[in-house]
Amino acid sequence: MTADLIQDQFKSLQDYICQYLEKVDGSAKFEEDLWQREAGGGGRTRIIRKGNVIEKGGVNFSAVEGPVTDLMKKQLQMEGDTFFASGVSIVLHPNSPKVPIIHMNVRYFELNTGEYWFGGGIDLTPHYIVPANARKFHLHLKSICDAFSHDAYADYKKWADDYFYIPHREETRGIGGIFFDHLKASEGIAKEQILDFCLALGKAFPSIYEEQVNLGKHLLFSEQEKQWQLLRRGRYVEFNLVNDRGTKFGLVSGGRTESILMSLPASANWEYDFKPSANSPEAFTLAHLKKGINWLSEELQ
Amino acid sequence: MTADLIQDQFKSLQDYICQYLEKVDGSAKFEEDLWQREAGGGGRTRIIRKGNVIEKGGVNFSAVEGPVTDLMKKQLQMEGDTFFASGVSIVLHPNSPKVPIIHMNVRYFELNTGEYWFGGGIDLTPHYIVPANARKFHLHLKSICDAFSHDAYADYKKWADDYFYIPHREETRGIGGIFFDHLKASEGIAKEQILDFCLALGKAFPSIYEEQVNLGKHLLFSEQEKQWQLLRRGRYVEFNLVNDRGTKFGLVSGGRTESILMSLPASANWEYDFKPSANSPEAFTLAHLKKGINWLSEELQ
Question: In principle, which of A101, A260, B225, B300 could form an S-S bond with A250, CB 3.0–4.6 Å?
Fold first, then answer.
């Protein structure tokens, strides 16, 4: 299985997801920017904005290659002279505070030494946590993981809890999901199976989000709920700029800034020391931005 | 000169600046939060919001002490078992896009080895660059620097250009100002003189800002200019969360998050790949967010 084949599959995945999301939105269409990277390769950035459902989002494909820089050696702790990397990366910010923010990423990395790995993940950031909806989301992820390997959901769910965490706030970014990195063939698992797992995740992504959209998009919301959404977006910005290793690596390694920072919302607010009132839905959400919650449990309802 | 004395001077400086800024604003009053740090020391966070002039800002004093952690050793590259650090740190975000954002900081650091240093700086971030106003700002800084040492303005102006820079945007944060760090007594310069320089900078700060406020606050602005302000605030957020070493150190070393992140604006926007139209005031501003501009020159007018 060559890098070219993987790249083509990721490209088709981007096409599939964009078409599906345009139907989910019902109004906005993706705009496309093709870009090339000086040191080798390039990408296809697709942005959707001012839609019925999605206020701002991106579905990016890239396939870059070139010499391994000192910075990459330091960050990746791997040997090799040249690398190839391809992936699809998605963030969607909805208009409504009753619809969650979502992120998905699948990626493949290869060195000229022959070493390679896959990574990826999907996580959901509701502005208002609704346990029944969170359960639906995690059930889908579990089902995709179970088809791949017995321990995958438990392992990757924990990995997501640890990765999508904002230490300076002592909060998770949202209700998590799954995250995995450095997956390579091992006893009992072939390279093709890992690719298929990534593709299954990507294929399932738009319908998983469609479900979340349909659960929230018809709900009315108040100005106060809109303000809360803007504060939660502020936290999303903090995570992406302070804590997200992918964003940081992209920015310092000379990636295309506008493609990387498509993950930021159209607008975000910060209010000094804001504390939601006791027993409010906002306080309920804050109390559930914690690691280790079993979202599959029906007892949370 | 003891650490206690320096701390008292910084505290008085905070009082002086807050009183002055309340007059400049003409409406809002500072709210105060006292906080203590588990490992030793604490601070006095003062926040101003929803004023006539200032939409959101903070004037923070802190004096913290305790064991030197491994993280600090790594970041500061200094030996010592215990440290003391005190400072005043300010960011003000105005309502009007015609009034600049401003930042000021003075700080003192001491180790139980006897080693110590001062640092600080002041920089201005106009949403719209007006060279005549930038010149006034830099003339004040030059005059304070000249009273301290012959090369200070040239050295610290360059330092600010390099420090207040956003590499992933290839932009400076604003029109710079001065920045200095690790200042200690040397031949011809006593510790008291460095403290006096820091205090002179702090004392001058509110009147320097008052001048900038008065140059802009009566100007009308359009909705389009307000939108540009929100995009420029987005860049301010990027600098503070991605590039500012002070913010990063504060967050990872367990500082008080709400005090550190008072530097973020009430609201900020991101728009994918926004480019101002040719020959617009926005394009003029972007073209001048560069290192190495001599703002003292009258030829920029």
Answer: A260
Which residue range is the domain that position A133 belongs to? 3-300
Residue A239 maps to which CATH number? 3.40.1500.10
Interface residue ranges in chain A relative to chain B, Cβ cutoff 8 Å:
33, 47, 49, 56, 58, 167-169, 230, 234, 237-238, 241-242, 248, 251-252, 257-258, 260-262, 264-273
Express each pLDDT in A57-105 by its tens digit.
999 999 999 998 887 787 767 778 999 999 999 999 999 999 999 999 9
B93-139 pLDDT per residue, tens: 999 999 999 999 999 999 999 999 999 999 999 999 999 999 999 99
| Nearest of B111, B73, B106 to residue B87 by alpha carbon | B106
Please measure the distance between the N-terminal and C-terminal CA atoms of chain B and give it in whole angstroms: 45
Q: How many domains does chain A have?
A: 1
Q: Which two tokens stand for residue B171?
A: 């932009």
**A-chain residue closest to B264, CA distance:** A270
Q: Which residues contact B279 (CB under 8 A, 6 or more apart)?
A: none
Which segments of B68-200 are extended strands (E)? Answer: 82-94, 101-111, 116-125, 165-166, 171-172, 177-183
Q: Test B272 with A56 for CB contact under 8 angstroms.
A: yes
Q: Do A272 and B56 touch (CB under 8 A)?
A: yes
Neighbouring-strand partners of residue A47:
A31, A58
B164/B22 Cα distance (integer angstroms): 27
Tell me which chain B residues have a C-beta less than 8 angstroms from the C-beta of A273. 33, 47, 258
Residues 6 or more apart whose Cβ sits within 8 Å of residue A257: A251, B168, B169
Give the closest of B169, B266, B270 to A270, CB-based. Answer: B266
End-to-end CA distance of chain A: 45
pLDDT digit string (tens) for B83-93? 999 999 999 99
* ipTM score over 0.90, yes or no: yes
Tokens of A153: 């959901």
Tell me the nearest-neighbour CA distance from B38 into chain A, angstroms.
15
